[in-house]
Protein: Transcriptional regulator
Organism: Streptomyces sulfonofaciens
Amino acid sequence: MTTAALGSRTLAHPARDAVRLEAVLHALSDPVRLSVVLDLAAADGELPCSYFDLPVTKSTTTHHFRVLRESGVVQQAYRGTAKMNALRRADLDALFPGLLDSVLGAARLQADRLEHV
């Protein structure tokens, strides 16, 4: 595990070599978490947790971000009072070439298909 720290607040993240395919797939399998990853991919940078208007309680939102962080899908760091989130695209692309783009592309196609049903 590695940690991201600013001040006294640290968050544990798996090192690149510790990221497991099954954990990434599990994290991406939830629609709420997948929507977060889609937003992060579109932003191409950091977004605060407060950016996301998720259809779940605050405690469940915290759980979803923890799953994404602990699986190695996102990097989180405190910037002042905000917890910032960034997609670990470089790590995921190096470990699982094409996976992230395939999943995100399939999610977008599904959203378009369901929108027209």
Remarks:
- The chain has one domain: 19-111.
- The domain at 19-111 is CATH 1.10.10.10 (Arc Repressor Mutant, subunit A).
